[in-house]
Amino acid sequence: MKRLLCLLLTGLMLFSAAACGAQPKPAGEDGPDAPVAENATDTPEQTTDAPDGGAVGVSDPVTPEPLPVEPGNVHDYADFANLLSAALLTGTQNRNLSPISVYLALAMLAEGAEGDTLTELLALLGCETLEELRGVCGAMLETLSIDEDGSTLDLHDSLWMANEIGGVPVTFRESYLNRLGEVYRSEANTVEFGTLSAAQQIADWINKHTRGKIEVSPDSFRFDARTLAVLINTIYLKDGWSDAFKLENTETGSFEGLSGAFDVDYMTRFDKNAVIRFGDGWTAYRVYLRNVGYMTFVLPDEGIALEKLLGTPDAIDKLLHAGVEKTVNVSLKLPKFEFKDKMELEKVLEALGLQKTFTPAADFSGMCDAPCCVDSVLQESYIGVDENGVEAAAYTMISVKTTAFNPVELETVNFHLTRPFFYAIESYDGTVLFIGTVTEPTAHANVQK
Questions:
Q1: Predicted pLDDT at 253
Q2: CA nearest to 269, candidates 320, 332, 222
Q3: Which residues of the chain have a pLDDT value below 50?
Q4: What is the pTM of this model?
Q5: Residue 224: what pLDDT?
Q6: Regarding the domain with residue range 60-240+337-402, which homologous superfamily does it belong to in the CATH classification?
Q7: Which pLDDT score is estimated for 398?
Q8: Class of domain 247-335
């Protein structure tokens, strides 16, 4: 049986090398390489020095340019995660990616695909058949459900469907709906796309299942009259360190960013008998969590840019699993950080092999009776690391639109406010909040006599 999944910390792509069906580490039990941490200020007699590093600040939502990464020979989820990560992580800005969220959303999409469209989706997801894909995803959802001892790892899926497109009823296949419910535990909801109500319902669902860490606004969802369906996966993770950082040991220090040095708060700890990995131009160290797994931090050697270590699936895999292990004492200095990220993934996924999925040639006849293709793939995420542990959340949303809807061409009316006009600001229930007139848009304040 293939490898199903490496335990993943959202956004930092942390996979374990565990085999299929591996269970999360019991509460309070360290992993095989977990160090014994001492949160005192004692100093080791000998240390192996390494340059400080990390990521801080809050990133603005941006759309990444797809890198020239050729589709690899994907055999399982780990290959998919490495491939997608290589395409999106450049090492030149804050980035937070949840490969598993994208994987599960694409898997739900594949359940409704037929012909060449299904073939290219299965190839990217590393499975030969839908039956194999269902086994992989079902095991993921079962194994990665953790809610104990203050540790949470929570995955949810949902399908949002239109009743009709342009006045023509749309029928979703019962077999498709049943499969999403049985394998992916997906909710199924009917909404009227293009309305504030639909956008609000979807935003509320995402906010609920990401525990409010992403704060999605309904205004960010521009569903139009051609939207047929929306597939969403969410992931939420919260866990404490196996050996907590003490707040009194946090200190301010300089961080050498790409645009210059600035001060950040560093969590500090001294780990005895710890296992560290040394690679070609980098050093990697695992910091263990209570129940979910661990965070792997990779530090480039002095003088080597982070971007030089990335760029290919093999490079990502080496950073996570390769290198020479050595048992040492580690003086750990980890910056606190927190940021949000937003990525539009259509171009990247198309470059990685989904050629028909985004075109009218797509075949999703297994989903519904209307001709359709994927319109957009969006992921938003959050990650925060402090003395208590890590909290991360993400959602991946796939929007499917019909390719047969031809809107009626309407006349254009010029409404140009080039002369005095009236205005009113009202709440959604019609309550007037502000009202007035404009006769001179740039006039100074007027005092009523």
A1: 92
A2: 332
A3: 1-33, 36-59
A4: 0.81
A5: 84
A6: Antithrombin, subunit I, domain 2 (3.30.497.10)
A7: 97
A8: mainly beta
